[in-house]
Known about the structure:
Elements: H1 6-18, H2 22-30, E1 35-39, E2 61-64, E3 80-83, H3 89-94, E4 101-104, H4 111-120, E5 125-129, H5 133-146, E6 155-158, E7 173-179, H6 185-190, H7 192-196, H8 200-220, E8 221-231, H9 240-249, E9 254-257, E10 265-266, E11 271-273, H10 275-278, E12 283-290
Helix pairs in contact: 8-9
Bound molecules: S-adenosylmethionine.
S-adenosylmethionine is lined by residues 105-112, 129-132, 135, 161-163, 179, 181.
Amino acid sequence: MTPLKGPEGFDHFYAEMYGERWPRLKESLLAAKKHVAIVNPFSKFKFSEKPLTVTGLSFEHDVKESFPQPDKTEEGYTNYYLMDAASVLPIEALDLQPGEKVVDLCAAPGGKSFLCALKLQNQGLLVSNDRSAARRARIHRIFDDYLPKTEQKNHKVTGHDASKWCLYEKSAYDKVLLDAPCSSERHVLEDSKELSQWAPGRTKAIAVSQFAMLASALDIVKKEGIVVYSTCALSQLENDDIIRKLYQKRAGRFELIRKEFSFGEPTEFGWQVLPDTTGWGPFYLAVVKRIK
Length: 292
Ligand SMILES: C[S@@+](CC[C@H](N)C(=O)[O-])C[C@H]1O[C@@H](n2cnc3c(N)ncnc32)[C@H](O)[C@@H]1O
């Protein structure tokens, strides 16, 4: 029997994966999104009312369903960056220290790189990489809109294929962020054309390239260095199954670091934030330490 495609196939695939949880999860994926506004310290912006906070986020922020579009303050820098609270977790997991050498392998449009820059305080090295030239332009724009030029001296933007990086550079970074391209099911559900074209082969193909990028990340991080792997996918093929494959193919070269956060839930190898229980996500992350 040929696998189901389109909206029916999508429903069937995720109902099998999430069981009884799927109807509520699907409903929450279609609900309005909340946002976190991360304050840009260089803009000197202050919220007029007492901001709402998400426990565990180390950046000054506020939470709302919708905020006015980010805008420049008198200082000449954009006031805040809007994101999903779960997208801040990989940065918390990286535990960046000023002076470290860091690469964000799939960096555009640049929200997580901006947070990395705030943590590194212009010390060490931050490489923001993305294969897409158009999307790299957005990284440059964000850095110029949010940070003084003098605060970007440790920042480089590159355009390599993350899965091949290890052919040119090995054991070079203290920390690696791999926020991988993924199925982004929330976007698929919101877009009837994308949903009509959905097929189960898609997540399988994406998982192949995600694994290649993670294997590359493990080569380019230094021994004892940390790789954070993350996606906004619901498909387990792109989440825990990628780490399972790393155990099969790179046994003995890494150990898993278990992290807990104030929202979300543990999975076999990592942490997942789903909107039915938290109002944030979907988001998945796993933390890997290179040991050999
Ligand atoms: C999930 S988005 C990254 C979002 C980003 N980390 C942020 O927080 O703004 C994935 C990115 O990976 C890039 N990409 C896809 N394949 C790639 C590859 N083989 N090497 C490097 N970048 C890639 C895409 O252009 C896309 O911008």
